[in-house]
Amino acid sequence: MRDFLPDVSLMSGSGTWSGFEVDLAKAIGKSLGVPEDKITFRATSRRERPALLATGQLDMVISTYSINTADDVSFAGPYYLAHVDLLVKDGSPITTVSGLEGRKLCQPASSVSVGIVQRAVQQVTLVPAQTYTDCMNMLIDGTVDAVPGDDIVLAGFANRETIRFKVIGAKLTDERYAVALKKGDQRGCEAVRAAIAGLYRDGTVSTLLRRHFGNVEFDWEENLPAMEPCGS
Questions:
Q1: Which residues does 111 contact at the CB level (< 8 Å), separation at least 6?
Q2: Cβ contacts of 192 within 8 Å, gap of 6 or more
């Protein structure tokens, strides 16, 4: 998990985990016959995940982890189709990415989403920030007009605020978040894929999306994404 993504995956000071991905992991575990009290969560970096899975220190990773061919893991899913998008205040005149022209965009440190937005907008003023929390503070006080990032991450930060925000629905990329497993775990991949499909079919995923992002104007994806073949 990533330990500071509000309403996505967040570890409190007492070590308690909460968020959409946390609840989804519990639901997948239940579908696989694993009781909730037998599931242990831990924070990981992307760099260390393949080795932790390969050595059995982790059984799976659910952490806004997009399917890719660079990491030596197997992916089951995706469990969610996210998109690079823009977060604005509710009522903002920015309703499309072109509406950002001539305005101020927060630039979170190490975020690749800024470059993606810049390819779609000719003129925008970047305002550097260390964290997404800093970006949210600047969006609230009007220092910036928008914050870029994966839509579900933006919605998670916005959902905890007392004022209402909007993910504009630009959908500049497709980010296929999937469960990472030990490389070559065909049986595990097929079981997790089936569990994900079942959670969409019975409405669990819709319920979790509403629970964690319902305070944000956000047209989240409620349909089962096209599944990646196991062993690919």
A1: 148, 149
A2: 28, 32, 60, 76, 77, 179, 181
Per-residue confidence band for 231, with pLDDT thresholds at 50, 70 and 90: confident
83 contacts 151 by C-beta, under 8 angstroms: yes
In sequence order, the 6+-apart residues with CB closer than 8 A to the CB of 213 are 7, 20, 152, 155, 156, 159, 220
Tell me if the pTM is above 0.85: yes
* Amino acid identity at 200: Y
The predicted model gives 38-46 an average pLDDT of 94
First to last CA, the chain: 24
Q: Is the pLDDT of residue 101 over 90?
A: yes
Q: Is the pLDDT of residue 13 over 90?
A: no
The answer to whether the beta carbons of residues 183 and 54 sit under 8 Å apart is yes
Q: Which residues contact 23 (CB under 8 A, 6 or more apart)?
A: 208, 211, 212
**Contact at 8 Å (CB) between 9 and 3?**
yes
Q: Which of 44, 131, 116 is nearest to 86 (CA)?
A: 116
Task: Please write down the HEC assignment for all residues of 79-148.
Answer: EEEECEEEEEECCCCCCCHHHHCCCEEEEECCCCHHHHHHCCCCCCEEEEECCHHHHHHHHHHCCCCEEE
Q: In the beta sheet, which residues pair with residue 125?
A: 104
